[in-house]
Design goal:
Strand order of the largest sheet: 7-6-5-11-10-9-8
Shape: globular
Radius of gyration: 28 Å
C-alpha cells in the first residue's frame, strides 16, 4: 500500500484553520498595554496546542489514507475512526489524468484524477496527490498504445495552430472571470497592488492620450476598449499556457493527450467510454473549413477553465482522417432533416429586434443625458457590431443546421451562442428526444427538436423551427435505421 505525498498534510490541515478563531478571540482582550501583550505571549501554549491539533489531525488523515493499483483494481482506503474502502476496476475507468504543476516539481509530486462514467455531475471519483515515482503504478494498469500504421495515429499541434486556437476560443468574458478571481480571492493584496502601481491613474492617462490621437472617440470609450482588450489578452494567455505543447496519440482503444506549458497534463481516455465527439467552429473558422475536435468523455475537461479538446485546429482533410481513430466508425454525413427556408424569421427575429431597439434607446439616452452625447454615439456603434455579427451567425445556422445518420451513428449540426457544433454519436447515446410545438408554430406546421445525449452533465441540443410532418416521419427513420445497422 502507498500513501499520498506528505504535502497533502497541509491540504488536510487547512480545512481546520477556522479553529484559530479561539486564540484570536483570547488575544483580542490582551492588547490594551505592553504588559498585556507580554502576558498574552506567556500563554502561547494555548495557540501551540491549537496548531498541534490542526496539523495532527491533518497528519492522521494523511496516514490513514492509502491506495494501490493491483490485480486490475484501484483500491483506496481512508478514515481515522470509520474506515472507507473503495474499489474501482481499472477496466471501468473512462479517464485518468496526471498533472505536474510547476510548484510541485521541486517536491517531485503530481496529481492523479481517476474517473468512471458513474458519479454525480462532473465530480472526480478519485483524486490523489502522489509521488512522481508512483505514476507508473497507474500507467501499468491501463492498456498500452499499440504501434504500427494500421492502429497507431499521432498528431502534434504546431505553435502557430495553438496561437490560432487561443485567439479563437479566448474571450473578454473568460478574462473578466480570471480578473474577478484575482480581485476577490486576492482580496486586500490585489487592491494594494492596484494602488501601488497606480493602475487606475495610468489607465486614465493612457485613455486620454489615445483619445487625442483618435479623433471623435471620447476617453471613456477608449477606457472601456482597453479594459475589454486587456481581459481578452488575459484569457488568451491562459489558453496559450494551458494548451501549449499539445499532442495526441491513439490506437482506437486508448487516447493519450498531452498539453500545458507551465502545468503539464497527461490525459488517458478509453475510446469506448467516449459518449460523442463535438466539432466546434466559429463563423470565421466555418468559412475557412477549420475545426476544433472535442470529445465528451467522463472525467475529461472537468477542471475549471478547461475545454475538452482532443485536437485544437484541424483542416477538413485532417479532421476526416482523425475522427475514425478517435471515435471508430465516425464520419460526416449530409443533412437529411433540416429547417425549411420559411423558418428564417425564427432564426433572425431576435438579432433584428435587438439591432432596431438600440437606435431609439440611444436616442432617448442622448436626450436625457446630453453631456454624454459623444460617449453614447460611440457605444451605439459598439452595440450594433456584435448584434449584426450574431445576425450573420443566425443566417449561417439556418443554412447549415440539420440532422442525419448512417451505420449506427447520428450527426447533429446546430448553433449555440456564437459557436457552431457538429455532434457525432452512437444512436444509443441519444437518451431522449423531445418535440416542442408552441401554439403559433401549429399554424405554420413547425416545431423545435430537442435531443439529449448521454453525458455526465446533460447535453441538450436544440434544432429550431423544423417541419413538423418531416420530423415525425424522418427522425424516427434515422434513429431506427442507424440502430439496426
Amino acid at each position: 500500500m502507498c500513501r499520498e505525498h506528505p504535502l497533502r498534510i497541509m491540504r488536510y490541515s487547512l480545512k481546520n484553520l477556522w479553529l484559530l478563531i479561539f486564540p484570536i478571540i483570547r488575544g483580542a482582550y490582551h492588547f490594551a498595554t505592553q504588559e498585556d501583550i507580554i502576558d498574552w505571549l506567556k500563554g502561547t501554549w494555548f495557540e501551540l496546542l491549537i496548531l498541534f491539533a490542526i496539523f495532527g489531525y491533518g497528519w492522521l488523515n494523511w496516514f490513514f489514507r492509502e491506495f494501490i493499483v493491483k490485480d486490475g483494481q484501484l483500491f483506496v482506503q481512508e478514515g481515522i475512526f470509520f474506515t472507507r474502502r473503495r474499489y474501482l476496476p481499472v477496466k471501468n475507468l473512462s479517464a485518468v489524468t496526471i498533472e505536474h504543476p510547476l510548484w510541485l516539481q521541486p517536491f517531485r509530486g503530481a496529481y492523479v484524477y481517476a474517473d468512471t462514467a458513474s458519479g454525480v455531475g462532473q465530480s472526480t471519483d478519485v483524486r490523489l496527490l502522489i509521488w512522481q515515482r508512483d505514476e507508473q503504478m497507474f500507467l501499468n494498469g491501463l492498456p498500452r498504445l499499440r504501434q504500427g500504421k494500421r492502429h497507431h495515429f499521432s498528431h502534434q499541434v504546431g505553435l502557430w495552430r495553438i496561437l490560432l486556437f487561443s485567439i479563437i476560443f479566448s474571450s473578454s468574458f473568460s478574462g473578466s472571470i480570471y480578473m474577478a478571481m484575482f480581485w476577490f480571492q486576492g482580496g486586500r493584496i490585489a487592491r494594494d497592488i492596484i494602488e501601488q502601481l497606480q493602475i487606475t491613474e495610468r489607465l486614465n492617462t493612457v485613455s486620454e492620450e489615445v483619445a487625442k490621437r483618435l479623433m471623435g472617440i471620447p476617453p471613456a470609450a477608449v477606457t472601456v476598449g482597453i479594459v475589454i482588450l486587456s481581459t481578452w489578452l488575459l484569457s488568451f494567455m491562459a489558453n496559450l499556457i494551458r494548451y501549449g505543447g499539445f499532442d495526441m496519440e491513439s490506437d482506437k482503444r486508448m487516447l493519450h493527450v498531452r498539453s500545458g506549458l507551465v502545468t503539464r497534463r497527461h490525459f488517458y481516455l478509453v475510446s469506448r467510454k467516449i459518449n460523442f465527439i463535438d466539432l466546434r467552429q466559429n463563423l470565421l473558422t466555418k468559412l475557412f473549413r477549420i475545426f476544433s475536435l472535442a470529445v465528451n468523455c467522463p472525467g475529461y475537461g472537468n477542471q475549471k477553465g478547461s475545454i475538452p479538446i482532443c485536437l485544437p485546429i484541424l483542416t477538413q482533410k485532417e479532421m476526416e482522417q482523425a475522427m475514425p481513430m478517435i471515435f471508430p466508425g465516425s464520419h460526416l454525413t449530409k443533412n437529411r432533416l433540416r429547417p425549411p427556408w420559411t423558418s428564417w424569421l425564427s432564426y433572425t427575429m431576435l438579432p433584428v429586434i435587438a439591432a432596431a431597439g438600440v437606435i431609439p434607446a440611444v436616442i432617448l439616452a442622448r436626450k436625457l443625458i446630453p453631456q454624454l452625447d459623444e460617449v453614447l454615439a460611440f457605444f451605439q456603434i459598439m452595440f450594433e457590431i456584435p448584434i449584426i455579427w450574431k445576425l450573420i451567425i443566425q443566417i449561417t445556422a439556418l443554412l447549415t443546421t440539420g440532422i442525419s445518420g448512417s451505420k449506427g451513428r447520428i450527426c447533429v449540426r446546430f448553433c449555440k451562442g456564437l459557436t457552431f457544433h457538429t455532434i457525432i454519436a452512437d444512436t444509443d447515446s441519444v437518451v431522449k428526444v423531445r418535440i416542442q410545438q408552441f401554439l403559433w408554430q401549429k399554424w405554420a406546421n413547425k416545431c423545435h427538436v430537442v435531443l439529449y445525449f448521454r453525458s455526465e452533465v446533460t447535453k441538450r441540443c436544440v434544432i429550431w423551427s423544423m417541419n413538423y410532418d418531416k420530423v415525425k416521419k424522418q427522425l424516427s427513420e434515422i434513429l431506427e435505421q442507424t440502430s439496426e445497422s
